[in-house]
């Protein structure tokens, strides 16, 4: 069986929801449908989630909410009309929203937002289930209350193992299951939203719980591109990509998936297919545990700016067992994660996302490294970009690093850092931010232009 | 003033000791002479230190030592005869050795070796001072007892700050000071030898203590070569090299200096000149804090085998603050130091010298990384070499990494790891051991052949 998740634009209007129905009907193995809240119908439109945030903000500010609630309801009413549904479903949604507003009257700010925002997916799932039934598709709305059990960590909501056990029963359902994305409930009955990855994570959890053969993720693009199309002109489409290639490319320009969302399917080796609701016959991009890497060495190139380099040098550093560990511990105590730690015998650089730093933190780190590690020299430099060349086939291709470095040299940019792990799925370069786009173009030219797409 | 250290072959015979005298006479600023024990006079010869080890082993085995002592004495007698010294000095050395044998009769194994071995330098210093005086050079033997105070760590003997204070008085000596290398005394009067760097470290300590303008290190080669002459045919001579270049090159094929030996002069920025006792007019190699790096980007290329790679992968590793630190901590708790830690988003490799590993350690590490860090995959691979391209000028040269990687690609070898720190004094490559020599030759060709030497 397949689990199909539809993003906001795929369920934004009656027209789009009809496409969803037709997609489900066209393949009998599509048994579980995860839906987002209605998204934008056109570029100037407002997402239902944003309309619900307006309602939540009014509640918190103790301002009237009626107009704002009406705006939300209007979207459902438009869709119900377009889908030929009667007013009953809209009445139910109206009552649900009014009840939520009452329920949160004295709740914490966080709960107000969670409960209001989650209604977007929840009510859309109810309407889509109603529509499916109205056209003769036996369907059933299932609430996350019935099994999607999450942990109690407010900042990092994740499904707990109990969820997988309970949701696995859905594989035996006689009807098509319509399940709202984006939220779950703690064992104490508290609603929690997935901060990162939204509805994608719900789909991945369900796919893992029922042991789906495929997790189809319907969005509004035909595929994932091999480079950021905002920088590179008409980049090649990626037909097949492995989980770890997807991860390594997640730096930037590859925002189709939030990588944490994939975790449940990665653990079980379930393949993912990114498809376009508006062009369902296009093959899309397949994300899988393994793939035939013989066709092209490089799968994609991504780039991201906003990196800083912490440089530390000390004579005979590599003789000192524990130096690197102590340095990383100082960063850890400041809550800082890092990307890479290239090193010489007597120096080490730590590549850090700059947003994690501020002057006070930098000064504390500089002082501690000087005083506790007796470093000869320690400093921060800012304004770097990381360029990552990714491909499962890279490890079989001699001379690839040479080609990449030569392409970068053609732009006149100096390479500040090179990092190639022994896995060889990725090769990353640190460069000055100003060269980022030019290097991305040159690397794309190097690895893709000669190959027919 | 200059401190001059002479290695074993430079003081192996009367003929060589005469060269030393002539070198000291030719420059009035050469005021402190540090000497090794007599080394090999020809390739089949035995070093006095090795003869003394024979004596020590006999003492430990409770076997007769007379023949073995006689072999040691014979060397001094030959030298005394060649230098025209009377029997008095040889009598004194004989008594000294006999006294040492008595002193260590009930001592620990370590003390037997230390006391016997140290006599090689000590007695040679006495003889050389006597020779200097015999030809009219006012000279004075100084014992390490008079100031070379070392710490009490048996495994890592180092001079303590008191030593520098006491030895600084030598700068005012009227005579040429002849000082034995290789050993010092603890504050409790215990003799300790320098395990690493031998007499080089004594010279460096004296140079730092008296604030020498130059530390001259006389050996039997004209210079340090830019690559291992056993692999590369007639490599270029290095005229100038910085401390940190020397350090980065210390992997292999650059065994003129043990890098820890340089520490005392590095701290004070005292330049070092490596010269040839047998060709003192050759300029030698100058090791200095800074140098003009504009002439040639690459100073040298070194290579070393015997590396292992610990590979660890885990989905979403880079989101996990503390993962790298915990991994390094596990290694630290096993007493393992590492060279580099190249990484991707979800994997990290730790490059380790293989001699630090054994099956039991590897299994413990694999188990801990799996159980404590919940890694998806963890394994060790062995049989790697590291090739290091070093040069202060590299940071100014665009395309250097490209040239190096291209040269390696020409050998058909796959690059397993690339590490370039932000300092850019060095660029290191991990490759399969079997490609090491071929790559070294190809890189030498790339960076040195086009430049006239």
UniProtKB/TrEMBL annotation, chains A, B:
Pfam families: AA_kinase (PF00696), ACT_9 (PF22468)
Reactions that this protein is recorded to catalyse: L-aspartate + ATP = 4-phospho-L-aspartate + ADP
Residue ranges constituting the ACT domain according to the UniProt record: 389-453
Pathway annotation: Amino-acid biosynthesis; L-threonine biosynthesis; L-threonine from L-aspartate: step 1/5; Amino-acid biosynthesis; L-lysine biosynthesis via DAP pathway; (S)-tetrahydrodipicolinate from L-aspartate: step 1/4; Amino-acid biosynthesis; L-methionine biosynthesis via de novo pathway; L-homoserine from L-aspartate: step 1/3
CDD domains reported in the protein's UniProt record: ACT_AKiii-YclM-BS_1 (cd04911)
Family matches, as InterPro entries: AceGlu_kinase-like_sf, ACT-like_dom_sf, ACT_Aspartokinase, ACT_dom, Asp/Glu/Uridylate_kinase, Asp_kin_monofn, Asp_kinase, AsparK_Bifunc_asparK/hSer_DH
Residues involved in ATP binding: 5-8, 219-220
Domain of life: Bacteria
GO cellular component: cytosol
Keyword match 4Fe-4S: no
GO biological process: diaminopimelate biosynthetic process; homoserine biosynthetic process; lysine biosynthetic process via diaminopimelate; threonine biosynthetic process
Record keywords: Amino-acid biosynthesis, ATP-binding, Diaminopimelate biosynthesis, Kinase, Lysine biosynthesis, Nucleotide-binding, Transferase
EC number of the protein: 2.7.2.4
Binding residues for substrate: 49, 121
Record bears the keyword ATP-binding: yes
One Gene Ontology MF term: ATP binding
Family: Belongs to the aspartokinase family.
UniProt function note: Catalyzes the phosphorylation of the beta-carboxyl group of aspartic acid with ATP to yield 4-phospho-L-aspartate, which is involved in the branched biosynthetic pathway leading to the biosynthesis of amino acids threonine, isoleucine and methionine.
Name of the protein this chain belongs to: Aspartokinase
């Amino acid at each position: 069986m397949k689990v199909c998740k539809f993003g906001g634009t795929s369920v934004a209007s009656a027209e789009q929801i009809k496409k969803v129905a037709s997609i489900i009907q066209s393949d009998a193995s599509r048994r579980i449908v995860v839906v987002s809240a209605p998204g934008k119908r056109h570029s100037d439109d407002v997402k239902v989630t944003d309309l619900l945030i307006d309602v939540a903000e009014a509640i918190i500010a103790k301002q009237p909410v009626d107009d704002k609630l009406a705006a939300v309801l209007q979207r459902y009413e438009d869709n119900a009309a377009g889908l030929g549904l009667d007013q009953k479903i809209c009445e139910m949604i109206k009552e649900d929203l009014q009840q939520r507003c009452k329920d949160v009257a004295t709740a914490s700010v966080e709960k107000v937002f969670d409960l209001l925002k989650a209604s977007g997916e929840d009510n859309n799932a109810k309407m889509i289930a109603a529509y499916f039934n109205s056209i003769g598709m036996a369907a059933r709305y299932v609430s996350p209350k019935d099994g999607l059990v999450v942990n109690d960590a407010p900042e990092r909501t994740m499904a707990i193992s109990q969820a997988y056990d309970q949701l696995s029963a859905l594989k035996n359902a006689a009807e098509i299951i319509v399940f709202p994305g984006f939220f779950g409930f703690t064992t104490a009955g508290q609603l929690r939203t997935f901060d990162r990855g939204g509805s994608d994570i719900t789909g991945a959890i369900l796919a893992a719980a029922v042991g789906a053969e495929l997790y189809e993720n319907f969005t509004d693009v035909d595929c994932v591109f091999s480079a950021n199309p905002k920088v590179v002109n008409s980049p090649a489409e990626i037909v097949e990509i492995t989980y770890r290639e997807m991860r390594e490319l997640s730096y930037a320009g590859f925002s189709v998936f939030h990588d944490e969302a994939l975790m449940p399917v990665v653990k079980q080796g379930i393949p993912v297919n990114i498809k376009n609701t508006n062009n369902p016959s296009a093959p899309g991009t397949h994300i899988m545990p393994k793939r035939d890497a013989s066709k092209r060495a490089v799968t994609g190139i991504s780039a991201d700016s906003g990196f800083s380099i912490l440089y530390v040098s000390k004579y005979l550093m590599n003789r000192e067992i524990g130096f690197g560990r102590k340095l990383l511990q100082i960063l850890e105590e400041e809550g800082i994660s890092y990307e890479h730690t290239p090193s010489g015998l007597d120096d080490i650089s730590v590549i850090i996302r700059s947003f994690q730093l501020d002057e006070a933190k930098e000064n504390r780190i500089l002082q501690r490294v000087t005083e506790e590690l007796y470093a000869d020299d320690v400093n921060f430099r800012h304004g770097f970009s990381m360029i990552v060349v990714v491909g499962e086939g890279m490890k079989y291709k001699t001379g690839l690093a040479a080609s990449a470095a030569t392409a970068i040299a053609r732009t006149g940019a100096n390479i500040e850092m090179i990092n190639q792990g022994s896995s060889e799925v990725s090769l990353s370069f640190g460069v000055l931010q100003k060269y980022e786009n030019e290097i991305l173009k040159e690397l794309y030219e190097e690895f893709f232009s000669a190959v027919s797409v």
